[in-house]
Amino acid sequence: MSSEEHIQEVSFLDHLNQRGVSTSLGAYAVGCFVILQIADATFEPLGIPDWVVGCVITAAILGFPMVAYVAWTYDLSLSEGVRRAKPANRPRRTAESMLVLVYLCVASVSIYYVWSNSDQEAGHRERVAIAGDFPTLAVMPFRTIGELPNDFFVDGMTDDLITDLSQLSQLFVVARNSVFSVAQEGLSPQELGQRLGVRFILEGSVRLMGDNLRINAQLIDSLSGESMWARRYEEPSERSLYLQDTVTTAVVNALALEITPREEDALHYLPTQNVQAHSEFQRGWALYRANTPEAYRQALVHFDRAIELDRDYAEAYAGKAAVLQSTLVRDFTVRIGEWTRTLALKPDDVMRGVLDNLNKAGERSSTLSKQVESRLSLWRGNYSEAIEQASDAISSAPNDPLGYAARSAAYSLAGQPEQGLADIDQAIKLDPGAIGEYLFWQGFAHFGLKQYERAAEQLTLAQQLNPSDDRILIVLASVEGYLGNFDNAQTILARLDALQDARSRERATQAPGDIIVGVDVQLEGRYTLTEVDLWPFKQTRDREHLREGLTLAGLQDMGPEDNAIPVSIEGAQTVSVDEAFSLYEKGVTFVDVRGLSDRNIGYIPNSLFLNLQTMLSKRALANAATPDQKVLFHCEGMR
User: CB under 8 Å to 132, separation ≥6 — which residues?
Assistant: First the structure.
């Protein structure tokens, strides 16, 4: 048998063992492992950049085929040193070609891997730099182990940690909606950091151990995946609120944050020491975030329970004020009516409830009261005050997106859409997960700037996320009118009419006693140009800007059946204040026909609000009184 034929009979694996390739690769792998372990342990403390670690890993990977090729091609002995293997001991050239091909493949994959990781890391670092020199943090929902005192405890604790840490001016904290939106995706710390644009991740678990509550928490650097610290905290269940304070303090210390005395005081302030009251507040707040009429009704129940357990619980009063204020705005801006009706309250009761609960919340009610006060001031036409109160809320909690959203609305409605756009952009940056409501105000600000293409993009997306929100449809129809997209505008107006028709059908099924005077009497019929007057613009030009776009879109003015009653009414007579008081005592129906700003300054209790220019009609008045009943109109003389 010839030498060449003998070589063909030997398998490729036999040649690997014969030439010592397997032994060489094994020794190389052990050496690489030791080097990488040393690099992992020493590079970060020495301040060596992460890209150097990537280079070491790449070199190690590229070395594998190189070692295999050298071991295959050369013989190594103590007596003769390194020499090229004899042809008789080598396989065919195809084997060498195979090794070269494998080497090139491995090299290409390694280079691509390093480059792609570098691009991802650069993008991650760019997003992390969103807060400048300040640390960036995401507080992830803690895991539940076993049974806890209530279902809302863990989510409520996460809310509290985010709220407390958001008060620190030297820390960028991602808002609740964003972290909860990715919490169930099973992402690694590095992936969470990239998704949320943060450097640090706070995560952990909560467990009930007998009568004690145990929290395991750790702070992770998302760039390296390393744990900066991990701690276990344990307290009796009735002291669970103090556990949260301990965790926030540990985060501040771990990140070496410099906080002001005011921030330190706010960080350690406990709004209540009653755990059950706090639990009721958490349930109410979760329902408030659901943002539906029925959820609002249930939220008030839980806030009331919290107040019964702790009469000094300022946050619970502020929560009630937030629900009532949002109800007021929802009903009177877009004529929905179902919000007030679901709460079984009259409009006057809603306004009084907002003011009463804000007063009870007092000075020690964190940023929530300031946000509510800002929105209430805006509703009452006090634009400068609304901006100032929202600014105070931002100062108290610079990472709370609701403060920026409140100020954005105030700026935009006050005729300053540039500032409004800057604030709502910051709110979205802080809480990209709550994009629906924020997209409306972002589109509204672009509408104010007459940037109609951008406004259309944002409002269209906002409408897809909130299809039953009349405000979005109204502004979007105006935008399409300015853009000349009349078919789109008509489709939007038809959708608005369909929503209003559905609500009218629902009201038609209600018993007369369920109709709330002051709201439902003005809600019949479809949306018309006159309802634009209900929007709380400061400048007349902004109101006309919205109205003109709606006119271009094809929205109609009042129909003939809705024409306002003339100012001069046959058989009417003027009465003095004393006579009016006497009639009030006898139960005569009072109708307030003044403007909204005048009514917000003061009004007659239980009077029916039907603004002369926009609400007063024969049909509305017929719902308030029969033709043979006396009605007293509250107006401003000849105005």
Answer: none
- Distance of alpha carbon 331 from the chain centroid: 23
* Token representation of residue 440: 């409306």
List, as own/partner pairs, every contact residues 2-9 make where C-beta atoms lie below 8 angstroms and the sequence separation is at least 24, other chains included. 3/88, 7/88, 7/91, 7/92, 8/92
pLDDT at 546: 95
Q: Which of 515, 513, 494 is nearest to 504 (CA)?
A: 515
User: Percent of the chain, pLDDT > 70?
Assistant: 69
The three-class DSSP label of residue 536 is coil
- Kindly report the backbone phi and psi dihedral angles of residue 237, in degrees, each rounded to the nearest multiple of 5, phi listed first: -55, -35
pLDDT at 404: 94
Per-residue model confidence (pLDDT) at position 170: 87
DSSP 168: -
Residues 297, 284: contact at Cβ < 8 Å?
no
**Distance from C-alpha of 188 to C-alpha of 205, rounded to nearest angstrom:** 16
pLDDT digits (tens, 9 = 90+) for 83-101: 565 554 444 445 555 555 5
Q: What is the mean pLDDT of residues 455-480?
A: 91
Task: Please give the Cα distance from 394 to 408 (Å, whole number).
Answer: 12
Instruction: Give the residue carrying structure tokens 């929105």.
Output: 375
Largest CA distance in the chain: 133
The reported pLDDT for the residue numbered 77 is 56
For 37, how many CA atoms within 13 A lie in the half-sphere containing its CB? Answer: 6
The size of the chain, in residues, is: 639
* Crossing angle of the two packed helices 470-483 and 486-508, in degrees rounded to 10: 160
Structure-token match 């590079």, residue found: 43
Question: What pLDDT sits at residue 96?
Answer: 53
Residue 456 pLDDT grade (very low, low, confident, very high; cuts 50, 70, 90): very high
Instruction: Classify residue 128 by burial, with Cβ atoms within 10 Å: 0-12, 13-18, 19+.
Output: buried
CB of 190 within 8 A of CB of 222?
yes
Residue 450: phi, psi to the nearest 5?
65, 30
> How far apart are the C-alpha atoms of 360 and 311, rounded to whole Å?
9
pLDDT grade for 334, boundaries at 50, 70 and 90:
very low
Among 216, 185, 207, 190, residue whose Cα is nearest residue 138: 190
d(Cα 69, Cα 267) in Å, to the nearest integer?
63
Kindly state the average pLDDT of the residues 474-499: 92
Closest residue by Cα to residue 393 from 371, 364, 422: 371
Cβ count within 10 A of residue 110: 17
Instruction: With cut-offs at 50, 70 and 90, classify the pLDDT of residue 381.
Output: confident
pLDDT tens-digit series, residues 279-297: 899 889 888 877 788 888 8
What distance, in Å, lies between the first and last C-alpha atoms of the chain? Answer: 122
Confidence of residue 301 (pLDDT cuts 50, 70, 90): very high
d(CA 25, CA 163): 55
User: Rounded to whole angstroms, how far apart are CA atoms 16 and 540?
Assistant: 87
Query: Cα dihedral angle (87, 89, 92, 95), rounded to 10 degrees?
Result: -120
Position 107 scores a pLDDT of 55
In Å, how far from its chain's centre is CA 631? Answer: 47
Classify each residue of 297-316 as buried b or exposed e, where b means 16 or more C-beta atoms within 10 Å of its C-beta. Answer: bbbbebbebbbebbeebbbb
Identify the residue with better confidence: 213 or 15.
213
